[in-house]
Amino acid sequence: MEPTQNVTEFILLGLCHNEMLQPVCFVFFVLLYIATVLGNLLIIVTVKNSQYLKSPMYFFLSYLSFVDMCFSSVTAPKLIADFFVERKTISFDGCIAQLFVVHFFGCTEIFLLTVMAYDRYIAICKPLHYTTIMTGCVCGSLVMASWVGGFLHSIAQTFLIIQLPFCGPNKIDHYFCDVHPLLKLACTDTYLVGVMVIVNSGMISLICFVVLVVSYVIILVSLRTRSSEGRRKALSTCTSHVAVVIIFFGPLIFMYLRPSTTFSEDKMVTVFYTIITPLLNPLIYTLRNEEVKNAMRKLWTLVSSKHCISH
């Protein structure tokens, strides 16, 4: 007989169980979240208002910043609020919604990073055809394809979980609703679903990571024929992209390209790609990019001058 669905809410065990450390964790993650939102918002505003950042690379960067801001906002506020709540609950529907949105923005970011690598490949390996290939229509279509790909992935991932029966226990050893902790609570054999999760999440991460590595290897090989100045500028841009790719994809591959088991390290690894990486992205792209830094200075000067005039 198939077990009935009688779980109406889940209890999140959270990230920190030490009551003495919870206020410290609260302050730490509040500061991280504020920095993440402000950092990514600054990039979006800078790209939108700067006449010098109109290339496809910055068009994609502004969308990456938007996705990072949303991705972090799915988990961080709930994590922060739960530090001072003894019973950390989330409704069944809320849990499924969180699962959907986390994977939607996470997978969209994977595809956006892949699109950005393609943009760099065209810019460096086919510079004479760059403007004719990377038109506004093409860039918009690539961003739209990233959103659609993220949506389809997330729908599939959510369907795999939502059709499972949950009859108790209802304690999730995590700080948000994710696939592996939920599979652990299902009242049925989840081996086949676990395999499908690997195919859906793990293989997307791995394939995109391999595509990214291959594209950057091709770019590096092509740079041998460039002038030292051109090589330096291209390397600076590509190094930023490679750093983001490694930081983001490493934890993802560890989490999803494996059997449906949970490890004690999972929570810290997940913190890295859901909270730390969205903060690091704006830092990496601004600190290593003179054009973005100059545009930010000019935007700050413009805002300051308008503020002085108004007073």
TrEMBL record:
<dbReference type="InterPro" id="IPR000725">
    <property type="entry name" value="Olfact_rcpt"/>
</dbReference>
<keyword id="KW-0716">Sensory transduction</keyword>
<keyword id="KW-0812">Transmembrane</keyword>
<feature type="transmembrane region" description="Helical">
    <location>
        <begin position="130"/>
        <end position="156"/>
    </location>
</feature>
<keyword id="KW-0297">G-protein coupled receptor</keyword>
<dbReference type="GO" id="GO:0004930">
    <property type="term" value="F:G protein-coupled receptor activity"/>
</dbReference>
<comment type="similarity">
    <text>Belongs to the G-protein coupled receptor 1 family.</text>
</comment>
<feature type="transmembrane region" description="Helical">
    <location>
        <begin position="20"/>
        <end position="45"/>
    </location>
</feature>
<dbReference type="InterPro" id="IPR017452">
    <property type="entry name" value="GPCR_Rhodpsn_7TM"/>
</dbReference>
<keyword id="KW-0675">Receptor</keyword>
<keyword id="KW-1003">Cell membrane</keyword>
<feature type="transmembrane region" description="Helical">
    <location>
        <begin position="235"/>
        <end position="257"/>
    </location>
</feature>
<protein>
    <recommendedName>
        <fullName>Olfactory receptor</fullName>
    </recommendedName>
</protein>
<feature type="transmembrane region" description="Helical">
    <location>
        <begin position="96"/>
        <end position="118"/>
    </location>
</feature>
<dbReference type="GO" id="GO:0004984">
    <property type="term" value="F:olfactory receptor activity"/>
</dbReference>
<keyword id="KW-0552">Olfaction</keyword>
<feature type="transmembrane region" description="Helical">
    <location>
        <begin position="57"/>
        <end position="76"/>
    </location>
</feature>
<keyword id="KW-0807">Transducer</keyword>
<feature type="domain" description="G-protein coupled receptors family 1 profile">
    <location>
        <begin position="39"/>
        <end position="285"/>
    </location>
</feature>
<feature type="transmembrane region" description="Helical">
    <location>
        <begin position="269"/>
        <end position="287"/>
    </location>
</feature>
<dbReference type="GO" id="GO:0005886">
    <property type="term" value="C:plasma membrane"/>
</dbReference>
<dbReference type="Pfam" id="PF13853">
    <property type="entry name" value="7tm_4"/>
</dbReference>
<keyword id="KW-1133">Transmembrane helix</keyword>
<dbReference type="InterPro" id="IPR000276">
    <property type="entry name" value="GPCR_Rhodpsn"/>
</dbReference>
<dbReference type="InterPro" id="IPR050427">
    <property type="entry name" value="Olfactory_Receptors"/>
</dbReference>
<keyword id="KW-0472">Membrane</keyword>
<feature type="transmembrane region" description="Helical">
    <location>
        <begin position="191"/>
        <end position="223"/>
    </location>
</feature>
